[in-house]
Design a protein that fits this description.
With about 260 residues, the chain is an alpha/beta fold. The protein has a single domain, classed as 3-Layer(aba) Sandwich (Rossmann fold), CATH 3.40.50. The protein has 9 helices and 7 strands, in the order βαβαβαβαβαβααβαα. It has a 7-stranded parallel β-sheet with strand order 3-2-1-4-5-6-7, with helices on both faces. α5 links the parallel β5 and β6. α1 crosses α7, α3 packs parallel to α4 and α4 packs parallel to α5. The protein is globular.
């Protein structure tokens, strides 16, 4: 069992969904929190609730990570607060739905900045501190979309493929140094993701709940896994089907499944 008591966890995208679920679960386990998201009011409300319920400290950083300097801003503010981060959870992200030429160039750019650049930069900035402690962890939230092309969500799927590959590489580099690094790859989850993407009915599959996704991640950490695919077994088998089917066929099958109705 990993002891979370008294450790400091930095969680991005903490104002709702999986990020909020991580905040609640880690607070329950005694961890102090640095919560990062754009929505200041929601962060403060969550921080006040968690500090009142548990004997922990919670800092709030309302910073937009969909920018070149976002990760650096977070790092600088954490240094100003004199917080020593043990746990980094890169959860912030969003999707863009539709044929590429019909989507917004600016939204796709923000998606890449948030889903890719902020994950890479925050990991690199906080990694030296986490390594020194010999018992910290990094959880990067990817997706089942990371395992195959995702037509009509092409930029999103590609960004999560980066997160998965990046995280598995770091696991191999550092797993002998006493830290845990994990890619969390959920399928559809009951969050605001589909509403923000603009395709709330895009995926009609049964959605997992954020709490069970978080518990699967922490269980995977305790087992020193490099990635976990929470939810029903079909999530696991569907993601790995692409290993045994030609990539061209996988892309065609994905297109039929994801084609807007």
């Amino acid at each position: 069992m990993i002891d979370y008591q008294g450790k400091w966890a930095l969680i991005t995208g903490a104002s709702s969904g999986i990020g909020e679920a991580f905040a609640r679960e880690l607070a329950k386990r005694g961890a102090h929190l640095v919560l990062v998201a754009r929505r200041k009011d929601k962060l403060h409300k969550l921080a006040t609730e968690l500090m009142g319920r548990y004997q922990i400290e919670v800092d709030v950083l309302p910073i937009d990570l969909a920018s070149i300097q976002g990760a650096y801003q977070v790092y600088i503010e954490v240094q100003k607060l004199s917080r020593s981060i043990d746990i980094l959870i890169n959860n912030a992200g969003f999707g863009v739905s539709g044929k590429l030429q019909e989507t917004s160039l600016e939204k796709n750019q923000d998606l890449i900045l948030l889903n890719v650049l902020s994950v890479s930069n925050l990991t690199q900035l906080f990694l030296p501190e986490i390594i020194k402690k010999k018992n910290g962890m990094i959880i990067n939230v990817a997706s089942t979309a990371a395992f195959q092309p995702t037509p009509y969500m092409s930029t999103y799927g590609a960004s999560k493929a980066f997160v998965l590959s990046f995280t598995e590489a770091l696991w191999a580099e550092y797993h002998q140094e006493g830290i845990h690094i994990l890619a969390l790859c959920p399928g559809p989850v009951d969050t605001e993701f589909f509403k923000v993407m603009g395709g709330d009915e895009a995926l009609l599959l049964k959605r997992d709940n954020p709490q069970s996704v978080v518990k699967a991640a922490l269980e995977g950490i305790s087992q020193d896994k490099s990635y976990v695919i929470p939810g029903p077994k079909r999530n696991y088998w569907l993601t790995h089907l692409s290993r045994f089917v030609p990539r061209k066929m996988v892309a065609k099958i994905s297109e039929r499944i994801l084609r807007p109705r």
